Amino acid sequence: MKRTAATMQIAFTYIGTVVGAGFATGQEILQFFTKYGSVALVTILVSTGLFIWLGTKVMLLANEIGAASYEDLNKHLFGAKWGERFSLLMLVELFSVAIVMLAGAGSVFREQLGMSFLLGIGVTLALGYVVIMGGMKGIMAVNSVVVPIMLAFTGIVFYRTTQNADFLTFEWLHQDDPYLPGRAWIAPLLYSAFNLASAQAVLVPLGAAVKDRTAIRLGGAIGGVGLGALLLVGHISLSTHAPVIFQYEIPMGLVVAGMGTAIHLMYLLLIYAEIFTTFIANIFGLSLQLEQRLRMKRRTIVVLALILCFGISFVGFKALLSTLYPFFGVLSLIWFAMIVVRQRSSA
């Protein structure tokens, strides 16, 4: 029973850490997979395999070396000098993505609920502080609630999609690919690299905290499969609305439109919840690294980080997203390549 509980907590935390606002809106799935047509079914399998393999590897390696933070892992992989430098860049990435998520939370309150942008930020900061100060147990507890709800919601949406006349014709399986074939195969690598590099902030301390390596392996496998299933279901749901779906900034909104008020409210809740899980994961990982570098208590570091996020978040969700994400995509791909090479050489 202990192993089963640990396995599912690892799987849910893995899924909840990777899945964020871009996934919830459907924009990530659309840009990395759906827009490439029928080949997306295969590239989703590629991405799923990478999530299972490398996500589990990161947690097992962290467990093996007893890593206190992702900086310990990077130093082990790339040496003390380059590991420290790379970790500093990752620190900037974590902080920047946290700011983007906080701005996104404010946008959900303002644009979707008709409430104050400031209220959305304030609620997120308050809840975030409580969860982060609970440590890894707090992170796992939140994901153990959010992820099952997200899986249930995705199942409902997929079921409703299968009742759609466009789904039953299976025309979505035969979309023409207007893009170069090379881009379609690079997309799953970019997607997996960015998400795994960001997720290491939680996967590393998670792997170090769980003593049962079998539970880590099972949790990593279930989490990776879960991520792949979510990608596949999301892709199919979006594809049945092509080509009009490509005109929407929040494409999943079109999918759930007409499914009733209850589904729509559940969807808005999940968007916020997925923004929140990414936000707390990044601030948590950031606080662990800074605690190693600075002679400050974690509580003080968390409070200062939240205050800085609050100040910068007013730049806006869209502006931050378009400016920061391309750079971090390249940075993550470098990390991705280095960890693959290191794992191959140590196999």
Automatic annotation (TrEMBL):
Residues that span the membrane, as ranges: 36-54, 86-109, 115-132, 139-159, 189-210, 222-246, 300-317, 323-341
Keyword annotations from UniProtKB, A to Z: Membrane, Transmembrane, Transmembrane helix
Top-level taxon: Bacteria
Entry keyword Transmembrane: yes
UniProt keyword Methyltransferase present: no
Designated name of the protein: Membrane protein YkvI
